[in-house]
Amino acid sequence: MAQCFDRLFSLAELQQRDRTDILFRFPFLDRGTGVSICRRDVCRKLRFRWRFWRAVADLSVCVVAGLVMSTAVKLSVSKRTEEGTRACRNLRIQGIVPCNVYGHGQDPVPVKVAADKVRPLINAGVKVVDLDVDGKVESVLVRDVQWDTFSNHVYHVDFQRVDATQRVLVEVPIQLRGTAPGVVAGGHVEQPLHSLHVECPALEVPDQIIVKIAALELDQSLHVKDLTDLPAGVVIKNAPDLVVVHIAKPKADPGSGGGAAPEADAAGKPKEGAASA
Predict the structure, then answer these.
(1) Are strands 74-79 and 106-114 parallel, antiparallel or unpaired?
(2) Which pLDDT does position 256 carry in this prediction?
(3) Sign of the C-alpha dihedral, residues 228, 161, 110, 93?
(4) pTM of the model
(5) Rounded to whole angstroms, how far apart are CA atoms 75 and 161?
(6) Could you tell me the domains of the chain?
């Protein structure tokens, strides 16, 4: 494997030939078919495989994080002395995410954490974390997350200190469950509201709010006031009349029905200028 990479990126061969014309044989890529692959195709396959296995690793961590309570998730970070835009940019280049910890009347503490440790937790929707700051563990709430332009990399995370007696206001995503009879009858699901603002105990923040739609027929809706199956201690702060999900009727096919009947006068005769078939 190492020899293949050395051959792939050999500067001597790049100087002797044009990059677009360099062909190599990689049995571990072409499955032993003996087909020569150009350098650009090899790089594309290597990049795809790296992204694929990174996604698999993130997914496995997300599944584990989703099976445990928020209070059981731990994250180790370290204090950082690097501050400012340039210093934070250099940290991100090294695969480190700059963060801040604040709240409870204490001074904000700048910290840093490896991107591959914090990204799976954020993707899993974890809200509460036991943060280990150089050996000192405290419960924090993931208050704000900043992503890059394409939402591939975490740029910054704000953690807010909380305790067991505190109630917090957070935004929790909505997860639809079940198959609506109206959908089976030809309708389609419209979901105007994808998250809810809820108040709950700081250490019992739900990862999602489950909304069951198995009883919705055509042209029926669920409003915020209809959501009664909530976790203990959770109170929804959205307006009660907001529509969460609606089963819309299928649109009529314009070509299936006949045209409108021509307009007629009082005597029952078609008016002049009316369209005739």
Answers:
(1) antiparallel
(2) 56
(3) negative
(4) 0.56
(5) 14
(6) 2-66 (no CATH), 70-162 (2.40.240.10), 169-248 (2.170.120.20)
